[in-house]
Amino acid sequence: MSAKKIHTLLIKESALITGDGKTFLDKVNIVICGNKITYIGQEKPSGVTFTRILDGKDKLVLPGIINIHAHGIIPGAPLFSSASAPLPANQAKKNLETHISQGTTTILSLDGFAHPELAYQAKNICPVNIKTATTHYPKAYLAAKKIDASGLKDQKEEKTEKIIEHFPDIVVAIGEGGSGATLGGGVQDYKFIPEMVKRETGVVINEYQARRLKEAVLGKRITSDFYDSKKVGNVLKEIGLKSRSPKWALEKISGTVLPPFGIALEALEEGANLAKKYKLPFIVHTAAASMAKVEEISWLGNLLIAGHCNHPSFDIKEGIDLIRRLRKNGAIIDISTFDTLNSPEREKELAFFFAILEAGLADVISTDYGGGNHSPILKVLELAIDQKVVTPPEAISLVTGNPSRAIPLLAPGRGAIVHGAVADVVMVHRSKISQIEEIIIEGVSLQLQPEFTLP
What we know:
The protein is an alpha/beta fold. Helices cover 35% and strands 22% of the residues. It has 15 helices and 17 strands. Strand 15 and strand 16 (432-441) form a beta hairpin. It is globular. The chain starts with a strand and ends in an 8-residue tail after the last strand.
């Protein structure tokens, strides 16, 4: 991905969604000087020499997307709450470039064991506003060591207090509190359980088979008293493990999922107290297994960001009821695209996502990770708009203005197309918002290479 400097840019006669959740303007001219938006109006500014003019016909201008929940985007960073080994540097770079190519101009890494210095280095790789969260506190470390912690072998243990105090410009949140790795969620399904099964049996299972086996043994809420030998035996047969007994599954699944689980739940209280002390948002893993603890720490009010409240472990009614209770206490509700568009349960997952949107219960939208992949935010929102579950201005505010306000230190001056704002701008096709035509970050226009362009 290459970049070209822009000195004075005119976007001519375009439609515009400003990011405030309600404003849609048509046939407006937008002027960018340096890294700031300096004019928005229907008259063409006179006496200005433009370095470049973009034709806005059939185009829609949006603020750059602010994604508050991503993983695997910082080279060298331990992954997840398990502090697993970092991705290869080229893969992390590719992940970051993919986010940018999908319209993301600000991104928050929730691999909370990443040292902030690594985030600074990532900023030099791609022209994006990248910040990080932290989980450098004792019980989070202990939970990681119970499941993996291979990403920490060359690092000394840090303290969250020192991380926050020494790097206030890039550490803007606490989190991710827990994850699918330590709280029995998706990382168990696509990583730890399949790895265990292959190691023990030589059989390769996918994440959906792993989830079925896990839930047969421990249930969606991850409890050791859920086990039903007959049900487990049936699942073992269906996923190609009929030679293994239900007792084997009980022992091996419990031994993989449970060691970090209780400690990771306790670590949520530790993270909440740090969030209160430093007045930083706390982004937590919200799923059926952690819902009781998440609700318990909702005394944080709007410092609590309940991550991916559309988690597939929820029944739709159960999830929406939880969201209503959390919102009543002031918590901010995040829903994630995951890799929903490629999921075998696509229709169910989209129905849940849309139900939350239609009820007006979502505050922000993010991607999360989805086993190494994610569905593009604008593609999922395009579907939601087409089905009339949300209006275009409402949809865009969930990924621009709202996240900017939810995490004040993440994207100051961003998240809106207004006079004086930082010039983070995405131009899309007017009737197909997932079709990106131009991305501008801090007044710099990115020349999208074919491998980074949405299909």
